[in-house]
Write a structure and sequence with these properties.
- By secondary structure, the chain is mainly α.
- Helix content is 67%, strand content 0%.
- The longest helix has 39 residues.
Length: 58
């Protein structure tokens, strides 16, 4: 086994892992946006999207 084979294999595995992580984050983000849309469609709202009529307890 040559030194170059080890280096190229290491770079290949690293690139594959990075691409898999990018795909996972992208697909997970789409899934979360879809879940938020379903929740908002069912009437559940996010606190960050408040109407400005907050009541705070002292």
């Amino acid at each position: 086994m040559s030194h170059a084979f080890y280096i190229f294999t290491s770079y290949g595995v690293t690139a594959l892992v990075c691409l898999m992580l990018i795909a996972w984050v992208f697909l997970d983000g789409r899934s979360r946006r879809r879940e938020l849309a379903e929740l908002e469609a069912s009437g559940i709202r996010r606190r960050s999207a408040s109407t400005g009529q907050e009541t705070r307890k002292a």
